[in-house]
Design brief:
Number of strands: 0
Strand content: under 5%
Distance between the termini: 56 Å
Radius of gyration: 26 Å
Mean pLDDT: 91
Helix content: over 70%
Length: 327
């Protein structure tokens, strides 16, 4: 607790008052202030620890973590790099360095850092998991699956890795295998909500409407329905032609998340189907104000503008749609 940390801080300060060069106490103070998010004080004492012991990699690792927390990513990379030069086997630093590279959008160096960690310890589960996440984000699905399979040989019941494997197969379009894995996982971990939601997405993608309805009812009975679940439920009601209920759900989502593009697009499409062109145009414009690269929104907007006789703006909208999505 913060109270215990404060007691520890007071103890370390007493030690330093008797021995200004007690490097361990400076380090302990830095860690304590880091824990309670007083990063300026944490950095002050970490710098003192480095001054008294400039060849201790752990101190530079802490300085890197402090810089990361302060969003000074360049400084964080420098401190982590020094820690690795001093102690190349300090495996935790590679993971932190990878996370820092991810923050600045340098996935290549992030992957390289994680691969170095795995070379040192091929059973380093955290590094394997982070590597699989990067591959998944890059849509390098085969790489993600290979990495997850390696991880699951080490920890066969790692829930997060099992979930990511299901998500990867789903993104790959292997819905049957993804559903099989999801159902097996649900048997092993019946109270693990994320796999229920992933199974819901898979069933929705395969248009298994009765299964989707059943799972949504199960989630509602557990009072654990999320905005994403509501979104799927809204589209299910659209499929069932229950326009009123769908609209209510879209609006409920937007009350909590005004920038939810899926709900905005859902309302736009719903109004367009009913012939309320101005209402549809209003929601499409709102969506494009949030994300101007929505090709489908530009396309739908062009169709409305052509129907309203505004051919100039319609031409501009269809040109933008084709520019964003030539297919």
């Amino acid at each position: 607790t913060n109270e215990n940390v404060q007691e520890h801080i007071n103890e370390q300060k007493k030690i330093i008052s008797n021995d200004e060069e007690d490097v361990v106490s400076h380090y302990n103070l830095a860690r304590s202030y880091y824990f309670i998010k007083k990063y300026d004080l944490a950095e002050k004492y970490a710098r003192r620890a480095v001054r008294y012991d400039p060849f201790n990699a752990i101190y530079y690792e802490l300085l890197g973590s402090i810089a990361f927390a302060l969003e000074r990513y360049g400084d964080a990379i420098t401190e982590f790099a020094i820690a690795i030069r001093i102690s190349p086997e300090l495996i935790s630093v590679y993971l932190k360095l990878a996370a820092t590279y991810e923050k600045i959008g340098d996935d290549g160096r992030a992957i390289s850092s994680l691969e170095q960690a795995i070379q040192i310890d091929r059973f380093y589960v955290d590094a394997l998991y982070q590597l699989a996440k990067i591959y998944l984000r890059q849509r390098e699905l085969d790489g993600s699956i290979r990495t997850l399979e390696t991880l699951l040989k080490i920890e066969p019941r790692n829930k997060n890795a099992m979930l990511m494997r299901v998500q990867t197969y789903s993104l790959q379009g292997s819905y049957y295998y993804a559903q099989t894995l999801a159902e097996e996982m649900l048997t092993k971990f019946p109270n693990f909500a994320p796999i229920r939601r992933e199974l819901l997405r898979i069933q929705f993608a395969q248009q298994q409407w009765s299964e989707v309805q059943s799972l949504l009812e199960d989630l509602r009975s557990k009072d654990s329905i999320s905005s994403e679940d509501k979104l799927i439920e809204a589209y299910l009601y659209l499929y069932k032609k229950n326009e009123t209920r769908a609209r209510i759900l879209f609006q409920e989502i937007l009350e909590k998340e005004p920038k939810n593009l899926d709900a905005i697009m859902g309302l736009a499409v719903q109004f367009l189907r009913k012939g309320f062109l101005n209402d549809s145009l209003k929601w499409l414009t709102r969506g494009l104000e949030i994300n101007s690269t929505l090709g489908r929104a530009h396309y739908l907007r062009s169709s409305i503008l052509f129907r309203q006789g505004d051919y100039l703006q319609g031409d501009l909208a269809i040109s933008r749609a084709l520019e964003l999505d030539p297919a």
